[in-house]
Design a protein that fits this description.
The protein is α/β, with parallel strands linked by helices. The protein has 9 helices and 7 strands; from the N terminus they run βββαβαβαββαααααα.
Length: 203
Amino acid sequence: MIQLTMLGEPTVIRTLLAIDGALVRGALSLVLAAEDDISVVAEVDRGDVVTWTIRTRRPDVAVVDLDLVEGLPATDSCPLLVLAAPRRAGSLHRMLTPSRTVGVLGSDVPPQRVVDGIRRLSRGEPVVDADLVLAALHRDSPLTQREAQILSLTAGGAPVSEVAGSLGLAPGTVRNHLGRIIRKTGGRTRVEAVQVARDAGWI
């Protein structure tokens, strides 16, 4: 489907693919190459080059993995079509800001859904995956505010003594909280608890 400008000239949607995984990225690139109104102007597989690529290649839409786009400045970006697994749905709220145009789709949707999403975003239309929204709504955090504080500090590499000092708690109290946090997240270690909480958007 070719879009036309007001002068009747065809519009080609310049698209960036920022996807971690050569197989998936290559397959999607082939699908997009078959579309007359979409041109892939760049492909990247690292989050640290997404901003630079957007600035230099000036895409109209960027299709990005959630893992690669976290930390991208909201004020220096084109419209983003974010692909996220349902287990990461809770992290999507970090991407949604008034200064950024974002569409979201599940990472396992058929390629044609991505094609349609690119076109809709380029026209300023919303792109929302209902399954991801439902997954996010059912991932309310089981952590208390204090537990979230402790886990956030732990995620930054702070030892128990430092966490205790910064929150005015006894080290034993912090250890007790960490034990409850591990049970609530279903992890086996603090590292796993941090990963589960980050994936779900709890911290």
